[in-house]
User: Fold this.
Amino acid sequence: MRLLLILSIAASLTTALTAAPKWDRFRGPNGSGVSTETGIPSEFGPETNVVWKTPLPEGNSSPVFGDEAIFLTGFEGEELYTIALDRETGRVLWRRTIDRNREGHLREPNTPASPSAVTDGKNAYVFFQDFGLLGYGPDGNELWRIPLGPFNNPMGMAASPVLAHGKVIQVCDSETGSFILAVDKETGKTAWRKERPFSLRGFSTPVLWQPPEGNLQLLIPGSYELKAYDVDTGEIVWYVRSLTWQLKPTAVMDEENIYILGWAGAADLGQQEDVPPFAEILAEHDADSDGKLSLEEARAPIGKPDMKALGGLDLDLSGYLEERDWEHHRRKKAVVNAVQAIRLGGKGDMSDTAVRWRYHKSLPNVPSPLLYQDTLYLIKDAGILTALDKHTGKVTKQGRIREAMERYFASPIAADGKIFLSSEAGKITVLKPGPQWEIERVNEMDDEVWATPVVTDGRLFVRTRTALYCFDEQ
Assistant:
């Protein structure tokens, strides 16, 4: 009996260690976009290798996978949807609707249903910028709801929730009032909330890191800084000041480093300016000595003549330039766009020692980087693909995908010795990975693709503007 017990335990451990990581959050296992699944087709399309197709309302969220269900969000008019589909058949299991409380700012192609859900296997947790956070049980029963917002983000919100230590964690970065919120996944009660006063437009979904000693950490790339938060308390453990001012992509990691991509307007290498502190500006231009600059007073220091130009600096939309507005202006003018490797860990300010390398050219705007087999891949609009050596940041190959020279919003994913790149126009390129990557084929969908695809169950799942497709080798 003892031998049988030992064999049983060994078999269970082997199964646990070899089981494919779950695709239960945006971009799968810890946001990596990498799956260990095999048998994934290279050829697919609306009429090729289709297992099933399920019509959906619009929405840019990617599917996430529970034990039995696929969870997605969508919208139509003034209604916001959370939808559960059967993993095997694509059949709709349930669909829940809430009304939009408001219509927040959005910049095309962002939608009211861009953040992806997160699941613990049975329950689904979703975030809508025009409502807040909601939790749903296995049958679509509402567990709790937390109204949040409105948000002062001219692009709209896009960061997805994550799960850690029984908490649903949501980053809400915008021009004013930025914060991160952690709530109990069963009750929705607040575990902790931390303000992020110097974070602006943030769209990056956090990743998790377990240091050799100490508590699990939540890593958030935001304006100017990477911050590591203790998952249990919300306290900042360490940070690195080396990022640009607007972060969209989700970071990726290996055992030693986190790789962060950030591109924002007017922050390319060579565009930096030395902006004087606010006290100097006030001394010279604050004619009425009220401690802030009106439009008339601000024209000279910013060199622009109208309120529209001022509006880009007036973060709280007060009609004046105040100290916080100007400090952000100074920081924006000092930072540099880059993809960079940052060593994990430490205490406090690690800015001087943690950055291992930076690369400044041909940077994507929205798609996250992909780290696969020691090469870091970047896909940029117009189909420009760059491969970097993860150890040095040196380019090993850069080229253009000439059959798919459109915009890119979906992030690249990898599985089964293949990389999948999805363009806005619905062209999905399959690559043979490596420092000298090669194009294997380009598949065409019948609609636009903004959501990041998924690989799980030995299948490829692609959400177009109007449907979710499941592909497998037939």
In short: The radius of gyration is 23 Å.
